[in-house]
Amino acid sequence: MTLASPSTQALSRWPGTMTTARRLGWAVLALGVLFAAMLAVPGQTATNKYVNDLYIFLDGAHRIVLGQVPNVDFHTSLGPLAFYLPAAGLALSGSLGAAMPVGMALVVLILACIGAPLIASRMHPITGMAAAVFLLAVAAVPVNPGEAVSDLSFAMFYNRIGWSALGLLLVMYLRPFNDSRQQALVDAACAALLVLLMLYTKASYGLVGFAFLVFMLLDRQQRGRMALALGLCAISIGAIALLWGGTLNHVADLQLAQEVSGGLPELQRLAETMMVNLADLVVFALFAALLLLARRRFRDLLFVGFCASTGILIIEQNFQIVGILTLGAGAAVIAELLMREPNSQRYPVALSGAGVPLLLATLLLPVAVQNVFSLGVHAAMASSRAGEPSPLPQFGGVRLVRLWSEGAYRNFVRYHETLLDGALALESLDRPLQNVLVFDFVSPFAAGLDLPVSQGDSPWFHWGRTLDHDHFPPAAEIMADVEIIMDPKTPIEHWTADGMREIYADYIAQNFELATETRHWRVYVRRGAGPVAVLPSENSSTTRQSTSAQP
Questions:
Q1: pLDDT tens across 165-210, in order?
Q2: Most exposed residue of 35, 342, 370, 384, measured as fewest CB within 10 angstroms of its CB?
Q3: Is 506 in contact with 467 (CB distance < 8 Å)?
Q4: What is the pTM (predicted TM-score) of this model?
Q5: DSSP states of 341-365 as a string?
Q6: What is the 3 state secondary structure string of 2-71?
Q7: Nearest-CA neighbor of 104 among 141, 79, 134?
């Protein structure tokens, strides 16, 4: 199998010098270190949105530290890295409050180390740094794509990892300058690492990554390295399956989530997604038109279609539907291709001077500036210990901050009030506290109070996403060793609470009894498990209020 050939080396020469390429690589690494430091150094988490979602992964980190294994000891349709990354942050920092920022700092460093050789070997400094800032900031910023600059949250961080890794993979559409066998081996390793990172964080991104590697087999000059990358992925998946032991269970959990959330997207939903992203699609279409006019290659048409179609399909099944980030990465690749066509006579005005970089800036700059600014806001808030800490002791480093836009802040103030009420109710029980299950979106008490965790349950229940009336884990499985059930009167996600209460009602009636009730909670304990203390229903210092926060 030929990894690089003389024809590849003659394809095109580095536009400057090899020193310039090395400097570009070091600049990408330095950018990654800067973003990672902004995340990790403050040692705190500042948030004001989707706090319940954050607690999913802190609970997962707590489970990992206690020795549990995803899809072996608990159910999850997300990949194991979605829990091992915050667990690594917890292990390094010693604090659940720093687990997510430190874990994401590790991801940013990994992406920078992978991106540096890919970008430096394939792109001019101007397009390369634009792509690097855009993609690394997407991974680093604790704000979901398409949301306000002040909506600080590590929720759904796995989507940002997927977008960033997929964007770096798209850079490999470009053929490298001054190709060599060593470069081919580096490329294969980087491509495999990116696909595996996506696959074991959120499977949908990994599948798109695999599809891209297969598509790249059409490039004769890069076919060898792409085949090698596919081989490395196959070997790695086999080895991980043997070591992990949860692959089949993970597939079953994915299948359950697919049955609950539905199959192929509806045409109306796709149309709505395209309309809310119309501005980005129009700019990307302009890039595509320039590329096809300048080069007129069928493979370019396939690449343009891949960037647009896979991006739309991915974002359609995400919670946020604004920000198709494959368009930005694809545009950076197209800009680089256009800059390699200085003598094109088919569209000379568009391809001359600074026209292409300026056009690229219109697509990448707004997103990049917003993300870098939001990252700075988080660093400032976390460093200054702004806001109020979570009421659960182990979550003390998670601080709820109020910025210039209140947004969902009040909803999560009320949510924290209910958690304090629940913690007091648990402390009142005359029994060891262990194996607590909450009939809501997340069960935060085990991690927040440093309690033992159950086997066979899940850190995340979401009505219409992971369970519904017709598809749900058996009660005897997820509650096999549960000792305490917390039934919220003011849940953070009332569809989930109502649904779980209904589908598991018979099991609760047969195996549990009401131990205490407060303004926000009904607390059930397993029958025959010893004495309990019953609190008066008004023995809570908080007032009952509903919350409209939706994950």
A1: 999 999 999 999 988 999 999 999 999 999 999 999 999 999 999 9
A2: 342
A3: no
A4: 0.90
A5: -TT--SSTTTTSTTHHHHHHHHHHH
A6: CCCCHHHHCCCCCCCCHHHHHHHHHHHHHHHHHHHHHHHCCCCEEECCCHHHHHHHHHHHHHHHCCCCEC
A7: 141
